[in-house]
Each structure stands twice: as structure tokens, then as C-alpha cells.
Specification:
Elements (H helix, E strand, L loop, with lengths): L1 E5 L5 H4 E5 L9 E10 L2 H8 L16 E4 L5 E4 L11 E5 L4 E2 L6 H5 L2 H14 L7 E5 L4 H12 L3 E6 L2 H10 L3 E4 L5 H8 L5 E6 L4 H9 E9 L12 H7 L2 E4 L4 H5 L1 H17 L6 E6 L3 H10 L5 E5 L6
Parallel strand pairs: 8-9, 8-11, 9-10, 11-12, 12-13, 14-15
Antiparallel strand pairs: 1-2, 3-4, 3-6, 3-15, 4-5, 5-7
Helix pairs in contact: 2-12, 4-5, 4-11, 7-8
Length: 322
């Protein structure tokens, strides 16, 4: 079979190599899946760079989220078990981690459902307790992670403010349903949020960016607001001023969604059932901006790493037109 292998750490476009390799052999409790579509996530770039918290043995195949097909023809979504990731014709996954792909979504959309929407649902509901009528601020609202949070926020009945960089991404954020869109390149985020909320600020802030985005968040979070830290796509990990959180009575909460697989696996299945219902009702639909040919996977991972994309880029193996 064909698979993208990483033999050394570096930029994805430099270290990902397309090779002919043997199909992987699943271990105990694992299954071999034919990859129907593989969503590109920022952690795939970090894996290539050797900067992710998980460091699989070299060589490995990146690709942490797929829609796959079992031997008996069932469509499933899952996180492959590294080093046999999803940027290949076949991947390995834990049998217990397989979830049915929603009928309402095609393969590429299903491949982009799991990590982004589960992270969004746990962050907004389990961690932040987002309530109907509250104001939700989403950084990088036109990106893969942010777009999921926007849709989930609207499904919860929140007023959603999306922060983006540039007019193209602003247009995408409006199409996603953002009630207010702020272009951080031309507008003052803090002033715009306060104007949109009558000076109150945002009740919940969803931050997959870190760096300056967090600094702005702390200045426009509402009384008893909640800032959910999802990631650091900017590459800068902020150092919160805890005295400021004390003075303004807001909460800073982290979300590492992967921990739920170990600490509370039943909650992931429960969340998936909710997301499947949302998809069937049309409340959520992953924003797949590009279906990438298998041969172009390395360049696509690099574009995600560089932050130049909107929505989701999904790799589709040769011969699969979904």
C-alpha cells in the first residue's frame, strides 16, 4: 500500500515522503481500516516537527483523524493508533474507539467531525457551561477548530462573535453564522467586543490560538466569564496574570480532549450521539474547504501548519471520490 512516512523531524513539506510499504498488522484489540478520508489537524504538523506531546517511533505515518471502512463494510470514524496514522491507504485503530460515521455526512465531512466537534462540545458545555442567550467569542473562527465552535455555539442558542484574520476569512465566518465578525488585522478586538456587548464583554471565550489572542481575551471577558484554552496555534503559550482573573472574577480553564478517552471514555460516545443528532438536524456540518488528492498531502499539511487555510483540508486516497 501507499503511505506517507516521516523519517526525521522538520517541516511537513520537507519530511513527509510518499512510500510503498506493507499493510500494518493490527495488534490485540485493534482493527485494520481502509482509509476513506483523513482530516488534517494542526497536531499532524506538530508530529512532523517532533513538537507534539506524543512522539511515535520513526518512521511513522501522521494523520490523527479518519473516516474508515471496516472489513465488513461499515463506515466508522476514529483516531488511528500511531505509528500507523491516517495518511495512508490503510490505518490501525483500537476496536473500542470506533464510532459510526453519521449518515448525514459524507466521508470527508465525517473525517472532520471527531476531534474538532468533540473538543468544541466538551469545551463549551462540559467545561464552560455555555448557556442559551450568552455571548460566545471564538478566536480563529474560520479555521477548522474555530468553525466547529461557532456552529456548536449557535446550536446552543448563544450569540457568537468570531475573530478572524483578513476579509476572506471574515466572509467564511459570516457564512458559518457568526452574529458579529471582527477582523483582528484591521479592528481592535477588545473595543469591538465591548461595543457588541454593551460594555459587558463575552461570557465564554474559546481560544485555540494563544499568544496575543489570549491577552485580548482577558481584556474583554465578562464578569464571571470563562476563557477556554484549547491550543496554541500561534506558537506562543501565554502566561496568565492570575491577579487579573481574581480582580475581574473570571475563570481560565484548560481542555485536553484526549484525556477523556482515558478518564471517562463513555462521555465520548455520549457526545458522539449528540453530534450525530445535530448533524441529522443540520445544526452542524464540518466546513470542508478542500478535498486534497493523496499525492498532495504533504503540501496540505504544511498549509495547515502555516495557518493559511480556512475550514478543513481532508486527504482522500486515490480511487476514493468522497
Amino acid at each position: 500500500m501507499q503511505a506517507w512516512h516521516v523519517h526525521r523531524s522538520g517541516e511537513p513539506s520537507e519530511v513527509m515522503r510518499l512510500e510503498e510499504v506493507d499493510r500494518p498488522s493490527p495488534g490485540e484489540g485493534q482493527v485494520l481500516l481502509r482509509v476513506r478520508a483523513a482530516n488534517i489537524n494542526f497536531p499532524d504538523a506538530l508530529l512532523c516537527r517532533g513538537q507534539y506531546q506524543i512522539k511515535p517511533p520513526l518512521p511513522f505515518t501522521p494523520g490523527v483523524e479518519i473516516c474508515g471502512e471496516t472489513e465488513d463494510g461499515r463506515r466508522v470514524i476514529t483516531n488511528p493508533v500511531l505509528p500507523h496514522g491516517g495518511f495512508a491507504e490503510y490505518a490501525v485503530a483500537d476496536r473500542a474507539a470506533l464510532l459510526p460515521a453519521p449518515d448525514a455526512l459524507d466521508d470527508a465531512e465525517a473525517a472532520a467531525l471527531h476531534i474538532g466537534y468533540q473538543t468544541g462540545w466538551f469545551g463549551l458545555h462540559r467545561r464552560a457551561g455555555l448557556k442559551e442567550g450568552e455571548t460566545l467569542l471564538v478566536h480563529a473562527a474560520a479555521g477548522g477548530v474555530g468553525s466547529a465552535a461557532v456552529q456548536l455555539g449557535k446550536a446552543a442558542g448563544a450569540t457568537v462573535i468570531g475573530v478572524v484574520g483578513g476579509p476572506q476569512k471574515a466572509a467564511v465566518a459570516r457564512e458559518l453564522g457568526c452574529d458579529v465578525v471582527i477582523d483582528r488585522r484591521t479592528e481592535d478586538i477588545v473595543a469591538a467586543v465591548k461595543e457588541a456587548t454593551g460594555g459587558r464583554g463575552a461570557d465564554v471565550i474559546y481560544d485555540p490560538v494563544g499568544g496575543d489572542a489570549y491577552a485580548r481575551s482577558a481584556k474583554c471577558v465578562a464578569f464571571e466569564g470563562r476563557i477556554v484554552i484549547v491550543g496554541f496555534a500561534s506558537g506562543e503559550i501565554p502566561a496568565p496574570a492570575l491577579n487579573h482573573a481574581l480582580v475581574k472574577n473570571y475563570s481560565i480553564m484548560g481542555l485536553h480532549w484526549g484525556l477523556y478517552a482515558r478518564k471517562d471514555p463513555a462521555s465520548i460516545a455520549d457526545c458522539h450521539r449528540t453530534l450525530t443528532e445535530y448533524a441529522a438536524k443540520g445544526l452542524i456540518k464540518p466546513l470542508v474547504s478542500e478535498r486534497v488528492a493523496f499525492k498532495d498531502a504533504a503540501g496540505a499539511v504544511q498549509r495547515v501548519a502555516d495557518g493559511t487555510t480556512t475550514g478543513r483540508l481532508v486527504v482522500v486516497p486515490e480511487g476514493v471520490n468522497r
